[in-house]
Amino acid sequence: MSVNHTRFLADLHKLREFGASGVGKGVIRPAYSEADIAARKWLAERMSDAGLTPHFDPVGNLFGLAEGPSLLMGSHSDSQPEGGWLDGALGVIAALEIARFSDRPISVVSFQDEEGRFGVTTGSAVWSGGLPLDQADGLTDGAGVSFGAARASMSGMSGDFVDPSRFSGFVEMHIEQGPSLDAAGEQIGVVTDIVGIRDMSITFEGQQNHAGTTPMHLRRDAFQALSLFNTRLNDRFRNVVTPQTVWTIGRVDVHPNASSIVPGRVRFSMQWRDGDADRLVRMEEIIRATALEVADEQGMALDYGPMLGLEPVAMDRTLREALESGAQQVAPGKWRRMPSGALHDATNVSRLMPVAMLFVPSINGISHDFAEDTAESDLLAGLNVLDTAVQVLGGQW
């Protein structure tokens, strides 16, 4: 028996229909949305057809369980608010196809809220023990909806948490979400390690006032505080970071968000990523010191939201070498070892078992956008590498 390329691609395109954006191949399938829940129900049916036992846990993680001990494979099936069709979905559908034919037991998982509607890889963080469920339930999305309220929409479908001891390891296939493989004309990236991440919200609160009558020197303008903070932060990071370090202010909520009112409050997301845990700590120190300095100078009250984050993680050597063997057989001269600058569920799962990851190219390096795509030949190459790696591992894993 061998993997069925036609069935694999058909399933991948069928999953894309749940939450299809109408723009190219884009999808809108945030965690716990109607489209997300419908997609999970369909995935559960496909798992059952493949001889696996579907199981939803209390937070909506969907497992397709093989009998007895097994190797776990998969990713996530929720999307960004304006997401691509392959981010996460590729790893789930590839795992399902491998499970259908493999001579050794393969279980499949689609983790919930990897994309961070409520936190950072929330579903796998709770399952792995990195985030207590009661703490997760208090997290809110941008509209103020709590994680606890959102997961209640799946309460009639859920059971207990799956015991991780039944799995010997975890392998996650994913699109690169960056330009390296595509720019080099390569088909496969075998991940060596995943960067660490920190994520929190910061709030400056000044004084809301009339935009026409309040002199500039008397204003306590919260948005101007944010502007000053961002400028100083970029300058102060200069001698601390490396070319691989990234930081982002991605969401800004200005209150009251009116053209004739001096903004009295601004709440914004602050996220930073690096492969060195000590550097992540140093960056946090600079962020907090800079925010406090700006608040004092501008007459602002300063507040922080919960700190969320994950430590850098190295991939398991045995699993990684099996993927490298598969890459060499399927794409000789067209693969590389590489770090992951994006965060993945594998980071959380590494608390419980050995993990490894495989990348395929993203056309023009685009992801988290409706334009996200990968050549069909590269999708199939990735599936074939997984197939070969599982055969290399054989019964020893």
Q: Kindly report how far apart the N and C termini lie.
A: 20 Å
Q: What does the radius of gyration come to?
A: 22 Å
Shape: globular
Helix content: 25-40%
Number of helices: 12
Oligomer: single chain
Q: What is the averaged pLDDT score?
A: 96
- Which secondary-structure class do the elements indicate? alpha+beta
Show unreliable segments.
Answer: none
Which SSEs are present, and which pair or pack?
Elements: H1 5-16, H2 34-49, E1 53-56, E2 62-65, E3 70-76, H3 89-101, E4 106-111, H4 122-127, H5 133-137, H6 147-151, E5 167-175, H7 180-184, E6 188-194, E7 196-205, E8 209-210, H8 222-236, E9 246-248, E10 252-255, E11 261-262, E12 265-274, H9 277-298, E13 301-304, E14 308-310, E15 313-314, H10 317-330, E16 335-340, H11 345-349, E17 355-360, H12 376-393
Parallel strand pairs: 3-4, 3-5, 5-17, 6-16
Antiparallel strand pairs: 1-2, 2-4, 6-15, 6-17, 7-12, 7-13, 7-14, 8-11, 9-12, 10-12
Plain-language structure description:
- With 397 residues, this protein is of the alpha+beta class.
- Helices cover 34% and strands 22% of the residues.
- It has helices at residues 5-16, 34-49, 89-101, 122-127, 133-137, 147-151, 180-184, 222-236, 277-298, 317-330, 345-349, 376-393; strands at residues 53-56, 62-65, 70-76, 106-111, 167-175, 188-194, 196-205, 209-210, 246-248, 252-255, 261-262, 265-274, 301-304, 308-310, 313-314, 335-340, 355-360.
- The strands form three sheets. Strands 1, 2, 3, 4, 5, 6, 15, 16 and 17 form a nine-stranded mixed sheet that branches. Strands 7, 9, 10, 12, 13 and 14 form a six-stranded antiparallel sheet that branches. Strands 8-11 form a two-stranded antiparallel sheet.
- Helix 3 (89-101) links the parallel strand 3 and strand 4 (106-111).
- Helix 10 (317-330) packs across helix 12 (376-393).
- The protein is globular, with a radius of gyration of 22 Å.
